[in-house]
Amino acid sequence: MEKRKVNKSVVIGTIGADAHMIGGWVLQKTFKDAGFTVAFLGAVVPQQEFINAAIEINADAILVSSMYGMGLLDCEGFRGKCIEAGLKDIILYVGGTVAAPLELDKNWPEIERRFREMGFNRVFRVSTTAAEVAKTLKEDLGIA
Amino acid sequence: MEKRKVNKSVVIGTIGADAHMIGGWVLQKTFKDAGFTVAFLGAVVPQQEFINAAIEINADAILVSSMYGMGLLDCEGFRGKCIEAGLKDIILYVGGTVAAPLELDKNWPEIERRFREMGFNRVFRVSTTAAEVAKTLKEDLGIA
Amino acid sequence: MAIKIKNKRLTDEEFFKIRKEEVLPMWTTGKGVENLSECIEIAKELSQGKNFALKLKEAKEKGTHLLIPQFGRALTEYTIEGLEYVEANSDLASSGAWLIYSDSYTRKLDFKSAQAGIERSKKEGMSMLNGWPIVNFGVEEARRIMKATKVPLSFNSTDEDGRLAAEIALAAGWNSCFVRSLQEVIAHCKNIPLEEEIRLNQYEARLAGIYTENGVPICPWNPSNLSGYDSAGYRCFVNVSESLLAAEQGVKYQFLELGQNMNLIQDIAMIRVTEKLSNEYCKRFGYNVEFFTGGFPFLGAWPPRAEEANAMIAWNAIISIMCGATGVILKCQDEAFATPTKESMAMSVRIARHLITLMGTQKIPDNEALRLEEAMIEAEVRALMEKCLEAGDGDMAVGMCRGVEAGWVDTMLTPWKYNKGNVTVMRDAEGAVRYFNTGDIPMPPEVKEYHKAKLAERAKKEGRELNFDMVVQDLQFASRIAK
Amino acid sequence: MAIKIKNKRLTDEEFFKIRKEEVLPMWTTGKGVENLSECIEIAKELSQGKNFALKLKEAKEKGTHLLIPQFGRALTEYTIEGLEYVEANSDLASSGAWLIYSDSYTRKLDFKSAQAGIERSKKEGMSMLNGWPIVNFGVEEARRIMKATKVPLSFNSTDEDGRLAAEIALAAGWNSCFVRSLQEVIAHCKNIPLEEEIRLNQYEARLAGIYTENGVPICPWNPSNLSGYDSAGYRCFVNVSESLLAAEQGVKYQFLELGQNMNLIQDIAMIRVTEKLSNEYCKRFGYNVEFFTGGFPFLGAWPPRAEEANAMIAWNAIISIMCGATGVILKCQDEAFATPTKESMAMSVRIARHLITLMGTQKIPDNEALRLEEAMIEAEVRALMEKCLEAGDGDMAVGMCRGVEAGWVDTMLTPWKYNKGNVTVMRDAEGAVRYFNTGDIPMPPEVKEYHKAKLAERAKKEGRELNFDMVVQDLQFASRIAK
Description:
heterotetramer, A: alpha/beta, Rossmann fold, 7 helices, 5 strands, globular, C: TIM Barrel, Glutamate mutase, C-terminal domain, five-stranded parallel beta sheet, three-stranded parallel beta sheet, 10 strands
């Protein structure tokens, strides 16, 4: 199987019933400045809409923002839907305030474990800067 | 041995090199209002001065204020000096910020143990009100 | 585009038709509030001595403040446990109220996901939702919560449509729903037209009116939290315009709640002008409304460490206190991480209560800078209000819709697709929010000049041209920890 | 009574005679600082890039603030560990300085007790003294501390007599001792006559002058912390009068540090009038002094819980920032219990630093209330200053002594036996400190009336006659936790 060529393109949006768009907005600006093609979907974005946009722009990665504490619930089944849509190997990142209970946020390895189990490549804390995310993605894509 | 008659009189002052006088000042006002005879010695009071005043007014108790964290050091030998002066049974209270290290303040039973060992009848936290001290002394004197 | 909505009171016939056909059938728990008169009677009983409107009135008359922490957990037990904990571990009971929020699924009427979240929370032994799913639990559970607290309850119900949630909350003796439309689409919506949003909110406002007319004073929140990054003038306009819409439906008390940008003078000017103009416009249209004001802590990104968060909690509370706002809404140090824990909320109440002890009745003294800022905000809002009334032929609802459509009602950032987003705001040298770009807003020239001059001061101070990167930096300024 | 002291610069002959006969022999470590020129050279080297005066100057010019936490432990290792911890866990290094204090035995020149405290601390493995015993440890240890920190060090040396402590501190590259006399007797003394206290402090001031003249700018603190419960006018008078005494000894920089009473307007007025009048009086006598200002957090009783203490930390810092004071001195949440821990001090720095981030360059806007308050304080202080100068035949030192003796220089509460204590102060409706009784102070009638009217407002607000019990309650108002 041949390795897919890097396209420097990403889909960015806030998942689920979450209306917080600033995090995603800053992210899309950073990635555009870094020379990426960006499909920015705003807030309150269903899983399928992320995937459709990823197909449309041939995205390397989907960057999911979740700020309201229910990211763990909203992201369930995301990798499965990607696989169904033929995006088996697409990089999935999630970041923000991804869990409502503070006891879970304070147990970050458990959060990482859960998202890894759901097929996400990385999960970022809310304090991560957009520049750090861009740097990490470039490394993961081998274009750093 | 006959029990000494209660005289409703107290000596109040701030011990050692400590210049904080407000605590003692509030205390003396409260005790005066409660009908006590009060010898108020202000701040920076040596042990012997407390004792001399206690003899002079035939005090039931000496109330030692210590606000600067070195009360544990300043109170050493106080009971001994009282005994020497013939005040074997005088009630000794101490209160305030009596120990510099926070770890000691947070271990209050240890503070109580140390002052008890030094012959003090009671030790009060800095958050104790003057009214509470007056109430306690009246109980200890059996005139509540 | 023809605007069908009118700023007109729903008749009883219209109201009860909507109630029966649209609202109560939304979810099974709608059945529990079918008998409105009975609900009102129970609400009267349950809110005895802890009515939100009356507590606000009392505090305003005394010149004191009502502290308003926020809470909401996936399960009723967790929620009650939280309220009881905070009330036991702070002085909330002496002068306070709760803002209980629902989870975001409930706000999107996705009661199935809310139900899944309830089950999941039970399974995990943690609150996996970001609020209390009032609709799923229904009125009896809401009454349990009301009985458990010593202070009034407000309910933050909704994104697009909080009608069923409000029915349940008011029927449980909670004395506050929300009146809002532009606020809501800018803050939380994506696709709903403003016209439809106004229609939904007319119902919620009318419901508050009916309770009030029947002896249970309801004081809905009229908030402008918006996107968290909006100009003071836009915030103020949102409150004032919506005060008219609510008043038309018979709302007699309104809690004007404004999101603070954290510039002392501008925030105070914004809150005071909002109260002044809401009063004035309501009077002009013959509405008799009593207004209260409240400051909401900064809605942008919070710092991820306790001490920096405490600095924000204190500064935000101090702005509200110095303003003389009756309500002081509280966030807590968990803000950057998760939904608030009861422990952190109790801490916030303690901080704010002691600030009130320390500050007593200290207020910002009257001063020229404040008067100027008030004059500028007032001029901007008047221009917007008058243009709306003109465009709507005297009908505020119509005018607001036309303004958004044409783009002269506009703000910078929102998930809502109908907002043009042609304006840009940026902080000036003192942290006040200014227009970098006024888009198509009908800004009086002197106001435009004022904003321009204020931004020029910043450019000069920083020795660099103003640019878009500064907008982005501004968005995150309060969350950055000095290293 | 004949006053022998004069406000006159010590000659070199007088200075070195006192140095040799009184100061250096106080304790064995006096030997370590015998060679003054060598000490000055080393101090120059060690304070390179972290000179207190120059850092204040830089911050004042930029319009920013220097955060000044306080620390001091019985052992050098503990002290260094604390400074390093706070600097590693906060942003102190970017714009900060330390106020290191000694233990109270050292302040009373009871070096034997200090020595016992050192031994006891080693034995217990805890700091059993309430500060760092600088005299017992001597200059080499003080230099170790200087090398360990990234920021300037100030030293809070003394009650009656800080001369040897100051010699050691300055010789170690710490750039600040204290100039004070009335401040000190009111705050910490019992029996020493003011005349003698002035004499001791002339030496300390002259020492600072000598260092400055030889290339190591020294900026002593000129504080008015006093009893913690003093009128704004009295505080201001103490600073202004002492600024003249210090200036005469060749002190070129002074850090005017004022204890805040926590009323925003009054505290700001007090700090600003102090700077204005210190400048003016020093100019009048031909002294060329550069002044900096700093706010000291409330000196009365603190609340025994973290959140209430955090509210105080924030409000006190905000007053200093709004004032535009260059220095923001910090207490921490341990205040009610014990000497500050490094962890709590780091927290205070973080809170204050984030307040500066949030507030940026926001200051109190010019306003009538502030101008009035300034005018009243100014009138009171001018009356006191002029009366002193008159009584002293133009000599401030003599005038101060005469004023205390006659009782027209007076404050309410102090352990010092020479203070008449015929004045009473009380908080007004807004928490500003007012004269309930002006005793024999030469108060201009309009100032007296002003205070009276302000207190009448409180009586009216509380619906009760003013009485002495309210004075007592006021003493504790900030430490009470709302229940």
